[in-house]
Amino acid sequence: HLPRLADDVPADLTVYLWDSETTGGSYPDLPLPPVEKAALGVVTSGDVVASYSSVERSIKILRRSTNEAFVVADRVDALPWWERLAPLRNLLSWWFMGQGKLLAHTAAVSTADGAALLIGAAGSGKSSTALACLAAGLGYLGDDSVIIDPESREVWSVYTSAKLVGEHHDRYPHLMTTDSTVAGKPGFAKRVGWPGVEFADRVVLRADIRALVLPVVTGGPRCRMLPSTVGRALLALAPTTMYQALTLQQRTFELASQTVRPFRPYRLELGGHAEQLPVMLSELIADGRC
């Protein structure tokens, strides 16, 4: 969904993708310490940041001084499921940090007045809220990862995929057509879909940030919007974003702090009558304080 550069416009970042199965070349035999399944090794040295997986046999390398990156994989089908939904997420987060921007573990929806960031850990209700707003006609920038510029207070779309907890998908099947299911925590499988493709006319590429919202599933009789604090917003944003970035954690925390500091955050309690959500968020965006 992102616009392509014209052929005569140079790229800011160039990523080279290579796999041994397609090319017929051998996977590089590097003396890297082994890491367990679902873990990654991280190497930083000067202007180079790299990560590797011993189990999946993949390597990502960013050379910041030349704005070049390299991804090497043994077999594409051995890559983890999240690479399909958010390709190159770790690598892009490293590069964007060098540009003063944060690839944040956050959802975002928008109106003509601006955008609301939906901040919270996995299972907090970010995706359900974002998709409910999308279905009601609000703009959609992403359900799990967006790019934030703390200086200009802008948010940018980067992926069109979405993950929805099975229970929420079954309750609101109109929010997203699914093409697969992925397993997270035990009993916490998520349905995978591409709402940015299904509702392409509602995808928004950029918006001014007008509100910070912290969703939390309460199961109460109705949804409620209550004042929260900058500290709680930072606690909701920084740790999960640092976990996805893998490295450069101090810089991640700095950018997260810059993001939340100018705002008056709100806690969104998710209960019954979810049809209220688009109206509540639209009103909050219109009344947003920067």
Can you walk me through this structure?
- It is built from 9 helices and 17 strands.
- It is of the alpha+beta class.
- A hairpin with a 2-residue loop joins strand 7 (106-111) and strand 8.
- The mean pLDDT is 90.
Question: In terms of topology, how is this protein built?
Answer:
Blueprint: E1 14-19, H1 20-23, E2 41-45, E3 48-53, E4 58-63, E5 68-73, H2 82-85, H3 89-98, E6 102-104, E7 106-111, E8 114-119, H4 126-135, E9 139-142, E10 146-149, E11 154-157, E12 162-165, H5 166-171, E13 178-182, E14 190-193, H6 195-198, E15 206-217, E16 224-227, H7 230-245, H8 249-260, E17 266-270, H9 277-286
Helix pairs in contact: 7-8
From the structure above, extract its key features.
alpha+beta, five-stranded mixed beta sheet
Short structural summary:
This protein is an alpha+beta fold and 290 residues long. It contains nine helices and 17 strands.
Question: Helix segment count?
Answer: 9
**Gross morphology:** globular
Residue fraction in strands? 25-35%
The percent of residues in helical segments reads: 25-40%
> What is the terminal separation in angstroms?
29 Å
Biggest sheet, in brief?
Answer: 9 strands, mixed
How many β-strand runs? Answer: 17
Low-pLDDT windows of residues: none
Give the overall average pLDDT: 90
